[in-house]
Design a protein that fits this description.
single chain; seven-stranded antiparallel beta sheet; six-stranded antiparallel beta sheet; 15 helices
Length: 509
């Protein structure tokens, strides 16, 4: 999972891209990068850490130009701790291309071998983004050989990329001296939107992972990039678009609406906030069918993305909604000094219970999802220690039983609490008096009702169905190897794993 943004303007874009990345910071906290172009010359700065830490005044001054792109990284392929694998990536031929990518290529290993043996291109990192930029570069070179670069030639190259690349990918690239290219995989798994605005100098076009980055920087949201579609924006700000996939279908990632996206974003015509409200309604029906509402005194969300669902659930069952946990947003990294043991970060450093909301009550806690279960277990224990008489736990998402291969940093199957376990076994592990999960089918129905034009959802972490149809046991073995290879190093600044849920509580040690 990453956040990406690209801009073509008549004014300097470094500050604009910085502001957009701040609005996308929730999509990645491990690394950040910005590249700008002045004429055909690239200027780049990227490093590990949060946006505010990576970019200082001196770095911003070194990023001139009216064209640029940026990325915040949450690594799902390659090395989480390597600055060399932070994006953007650059190749100098043909033209000079810089690229950022959100998603995960499921055939990256095969492509890497093919690039070396057939295309004569060398890949120097374990990042699938480096594989992707080299495929794009190779196909552009083939399409544009001895010809002037036109939008149609660019679109022909993207069509060839679609034929070679498998998996999920939302891409923004700059082609030096020509313009900005954005395209999305044929299933539209990862989000991508574009907007435009007017400045004193002229027209400005922005492409970004979420609408909030467009609207939050003063631009007008135009539409989502369609699955399989490519958009080419020339240096004058003219937008050219073409469908480049043979059989595009819209299957956005369901977990975007559960957890990943900001609630004030609209993805593929669906308000994330509205989707989470609807999830609260169907979850309320599950609660009512499982236990009498009279057994519940109060509904309390586990911060943060569960709040809309918890509010709607509380209203539907006729019980008060209360904030029972306060989140500390400023927990730093762990520093290991000589002679000190490694101190595991606790949920309690990041959440604190408000005792008066728990004491003597039967409490229904609502979380957006339960992945490993270790966070949930500690939070249930916190509620008991705060004086709760009974602690029930409801998940706004169904059980997460399968790994994700499309760009979400889900653990391997062995690390998922719901993999191979019954709800009762999970309840005992967590220590709750009752455990209630959302049902997948009603959840998909109420979210899809917000945009009936969707063909469906990519929901593999819930149902084990991998929409691209090319995922095999070897892919899961590769995921496991990557997880082991990354090891248990000291945290990079701000590093957390998605498996840690939105409380930020299961952060890597």
């Amino acid at each position: 999972m990453c956040g990406i943004v690209g801009v073509i303007s008549k004014a300097p874009v470094n500050q604009l891209i910085y502001d957009a990345l701040l609005l996308l910071q929730h999509r990645g906290q491990d690394a950040a990068g910005i590249v700008t172009m002045q004429g055909t010359k690239c200027f780049m700065h990227k490093a590990r850490g949060m946006v505010r830490d990576v970019f200082r005044t001196r770095n911003m001054r070194a990023l001139p130009g009216t064209v640029g792109l940026g990325q915040v990284r949450y690594p799902t392929a390659g090395n989480a701790y390597s600055e060399e694998e932070a994006q953007p990536f650059y190749v100098n031929a043909p033209f000079g291309i810089v690229l950022v990518h959100n998603g995960n290529l499921t055939n990256a290993a095969a492509l890497k071998r093919e690039l070396f043996a057939v295309d004569r291109r060398h890949i120097n990192t374990e990042s699938d983004t480096e594989v992707l930029i080299n495929v794009v570069a190779h196909e552009l070179e083939r399409s544009a050989r001895d010809l002037a670069l036109t939008p149609e030639i660019v679109f022909d190259a993207v069509a060839a990329v679609h034929r070679r690349v498998k998996g999920s990918y939302a891409v923004i690239a700059l082609i030096a001296g020509h313009g900005l290219l954005a395209f999305r995989d044929p299933f539209g798994i990862r989000p991508l939107a574009f907007g435009e605005g007017e400045t004193a100098e002229g027209r400005e076009v922005m492409v970004a992972s979420e609408s909030v980055a467009i609207e939050g920087t003063g631009h007008r949201f135009v539409r989502d990039v369609a699955p399989g579609e490519a958009i080419f924006v020339d240096l004058e700000g003219r937008v050219h678009a073409r469908q480049c996939a043979d059989h595009p279908r819209l299957y956005p990632c369901l977990f975007e609406y559960v957890y990943l996206a900001r609630p004030d974003s609209v993805l593929d015509g669906i308000s994330v906030y509205h989707a989470r409200l609807n999830m609260g309604e169907t979850l309320a029906q599950r609660v009512i069918s499982t236990m009498p509402p009279s057994a519940i005194d109060v509904v309390i969300p586990i911060p943060e993305s569960s709040r809309p669902s918890a509010m709607q659930l509380a209203q539907k069952i006729g019980k008060p909604y209360r904030e029972g946990f306060v989140k500390n947003r400023y927990v730093g990294r762990t520093f290991i000094m000589p002679g000190q043991a490694v101190r595991k970060k606790s949920v309690r450093q990041k959440l604190n219970a408000i005792g008066m909301e728990f004491k003597g009550r039967n409490v229904l806690l609502v979380d957006d999802s339960i992945v490993r279960g270790t966070t949930s277990r500690e939070i249930v224990q916190m509620a008991r220690e705060a004086g709760a008489r009974k602690v029930y736990l409801a998940s706004a998402a169904p059980p997460v039983r399968y790994p994700n291969v499309y760009g979400i940093d889900m653990p391997t199957a062995e690390e998922l609490i719901a993999h191979g376990r019954s709800v009762e076994e999970i309840r005992r592990f967590i220590g709750a008096d009752a455990l209630i999960y959302q049902d997948l089918e009603p959840m998909q129905r109420v979210v899809r009702a917000l945009n009936p034009k969707l063909d469906g959802f990519e929901a593999s972490c819930f149902d084990g169905h991998y929409i691209t149809g090319d995922v095999s046991a070897s892919d899961f073995a590769t995921l496991r190897e990557q997880r082991l290879a990354q090891g248990d190093d000291d945290d990079p600044p701000g590093h957390t794993r998605l498996a840690l849920q939105n409380s930020g509580a299961e952060s890597a040690p």
